[in-house]
């Protein structure tokens, strides 16, 4: 945290939405493309990919290639609101992918119908453990 005062103000504003039983888990992502469109879509998919233990450097390189390919495929389908991905700068072995969708159902339906997307997902899941969520985001004014 470079600017503790700004984070304190942000955390105070978010406090009503944070579960007291689970601590807030904050990390910073170096996105390859600014994720403005995915974050302004009706629903935003946030997929965390944690590299599995024992994965080789070659597998990590393959994962990067798969993420580049995933981004290209999703961006060219024209069914979403763009996407972006990047590595976590403060946690080794964590990649984050974000995509904008009309609804979570639209995302799931597309993956079911598109064999190339399904195949990329299966390959990614061989290398990294996924945690995928969909959320409606809104702008917070401080």
Automatic annotation (TrEMBL):
<protein>
    <recommendedName>
        <fullName>ABM domain-containing protein</fullName>
    </recommendedName>
</protein>
């Amino acid at each position: 945290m470079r600017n503790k005062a700004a984070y304190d103000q942000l955390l105070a504003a978010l406090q009503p939405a944070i579960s007291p039983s689970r601590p807030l888990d904050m990390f910073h992502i170096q996105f390859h493309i600014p994720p403005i469109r995915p974050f302004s879509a009706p629903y935003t998919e946030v997929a965390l990919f944690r590299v599995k233990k024992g994965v080789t450097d070659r597998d990590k390189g393959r994962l990067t290639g798969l993420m580049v390919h995933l981004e290209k495929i999703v961006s060219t389908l024209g069914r979403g609101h763009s996407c972006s991905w990047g590595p976590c700068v403060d946690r080794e072995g964590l990649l984050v992918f974000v995509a904008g969708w009309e609804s979570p159902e639209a995302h799931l339906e597309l993956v079911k119908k598109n064999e190339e997307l399904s195949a990329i997902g299966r390959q990614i899941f061989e290398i990294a453990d996924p945690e995928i969520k969909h959320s409606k985001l809104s702008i917070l004014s401080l």
